[in-house]
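wait is this the right file?? whatever heres the structure
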């Protein structure tokens, strides 16, 4: 073989040697697991530590002259001139008795102050997260990976609780002379500075009634939680198939809930009518906060793996009010686990 032919084969031999060297180097880098670029994690999460309760906003007001459970009779802008007033109101037509209007007030009724028996308040749902590797750097024999992530979660909650208390009560009743007027149809509410039909401002006391009473409160709660999060992550491969990572960042929950409050008062004395009040309230609010998470990933291929993690997060509380009660979904400090598949590309 002549020298000219040898010279022509030299470049090809050099290229082959270089390719072999690159291949060997790549095979000797067991920690290069994550591709520089984008990845998607999809799976499920389980979050525990959510506190759900219903609390009374304020104790029932103390009895005040002229204010009753079923109406009021108060002085108007004339300050009780001639013993008459147009600042009065009532609720039911049954209060009209013999040319007068009867007002009643229950004293000593004990009410439920709090509900805590909503059972398991843990959340479970799907999650999806998109991230990318922003920077890679050497950590001895390993490569450190740094990037950012953006994720979304969804979960729902529903629960109910009820309680009741007993007490001995007294019903005070007063009648006010209508002075021959035909009262407006019930329910009616007059105003202190707007003229209207005049009635007597002086009550005529009626016999007091006593009774045993049972006051109960029942609440049905439901809510949807939409969680978004944005943060930074740091990862380190441990072996050829196993890597660890940690994330920290901002999280915000949009919580939309519904509360159905039902309060019932029943009396052993048949002369005192039982009462039932129901109200349904909806409320939505953003609950900003922060999160931290640690994860482990096992790789089937350099682009496909399974992950599992543990996390802590902190968010605020969703509050829904009705019937002098407040339902609270309080996230505060919560913990959770998650897992699923990760695809890198």
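ok assuming it is, sequence goes like this
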């Amino acid at each position: 073989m002549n020298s000219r032919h040898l010279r022509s084969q030299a470049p090809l031999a050099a290229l082959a040697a270089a390719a072999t060297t690159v291949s060997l180097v790549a095979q000797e880098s067991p920690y290069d697991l994550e591709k520089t670029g984008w990845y998607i994690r999809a799976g499920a999460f389980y979050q525990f530590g959510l506190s759900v309760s219903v609390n009374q906003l304020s104790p029932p007001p103390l009895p005040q002259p002229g204010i009753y459970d079923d109406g009021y009779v108060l002085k108007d802008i004339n300050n009780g001139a001639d013993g008459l007033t147009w600042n009065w109101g009532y609720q039911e037509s049954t209060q009209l008795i013999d040319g007068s209007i009867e007002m009643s007030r229950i004293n000593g009724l004990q009410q439920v102050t709090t509900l805590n028996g909503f059972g398991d308040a843990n959340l479970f749902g799907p999650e999806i997260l998109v991230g990318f590797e922003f920077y890679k750097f050497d950590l001895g024999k390993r490569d450190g990976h740094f990037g950012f992530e953006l994720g979304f979660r969804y979960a729902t909650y529903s629960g109910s609780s009820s309680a009741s208390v007993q007490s001995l009560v007294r019903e005070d009743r007063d009648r006010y002379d209508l002075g021959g007027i035909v009262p407006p149809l019930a329910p009616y509410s007059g105003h202190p500075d707007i003229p209207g039909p005049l009635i007597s401002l002086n009550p005529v006391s009626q016999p007091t009634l006593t009774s045993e009473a049972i006051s109960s409160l029942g609440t049905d709660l439901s809510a949807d939680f939409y969680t978004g999060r944005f943060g930074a992550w740091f990862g380190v491969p441990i072996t050829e198939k196993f890597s660890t990572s940690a994330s920290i960042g901002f999280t915000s929950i949009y919580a939309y809930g519904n509360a159905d409050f039902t309060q019932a008062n029943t009396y052993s004395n048949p002369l005192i009518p039982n009462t039932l009040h129901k109200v349904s309230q909806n409320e939505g609010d953003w609950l900003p906060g922060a999160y931290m998470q640690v994860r482990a990933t096992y790789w089937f291929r350099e682009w496909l793996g399974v992950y599992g993690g543990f996390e802590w997060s902190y968010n605020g509380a969703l509050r829904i009010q009705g019937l002098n009660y407040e339902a609270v979904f309080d996230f505060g400090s919560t913990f959770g686990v998650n897992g699923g598949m990760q695809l890198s590309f």
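The chain is about 5% helix and 65% strand. so i think its the right one actually
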